[in-house]
Design goal:
mainly alpha, about 80% helix, rod-shaped
């Protein structure tokens, strides 16, 4: 009976830790998508800050991969999306366009 209770407690703890990890992963993926959206309308000075944040998230992801805790498929797609948006906007700015994402009217 004691072993059964200990096993249940361990299962509960593992489940809670996995849920927290999943929530953290989802927050980072959401942030990568936000970075991509912001990048498509950013000015050149803003792109550097967005790219620095992207690099911090990539470093966080790589550390998670090393410890076996990150979902590689979702992060790989989100990282590629954000990186592509930053490069797309950087190229648009080089060509003298004000932004590659249409501005919404109030």
């Amino acid at each position: 009976m004691v072993l059964s209770m200990a096993g249940s407690a361990i299962a509960l703890l593992v489940g809670r830790l996995n849920r927290k990890k999943s929530e953290s992963d989802l927050r980072q993926i959401d942030r990568l998508i936000e970075l991509a959206d912001k990048a498509l309308a950013a000015q050149a000075s803003e792109l550097k800050a967005l790219e620095e944040e992207l690099n911090r998230i990539i470093a966080w992801f790589v550390k998670g991969q090393a410890s076996g805790t990150a979902d590689s498929t979702a992060f790989s797609i989100a990282i590629s999306h954000a990186r592509h948006a930053i490069e797309k906007q950087r190229e648009a700015l080089r060509q003298g366009q004000t932004g590659s994402m249409p501005q919404q009217e109030p």
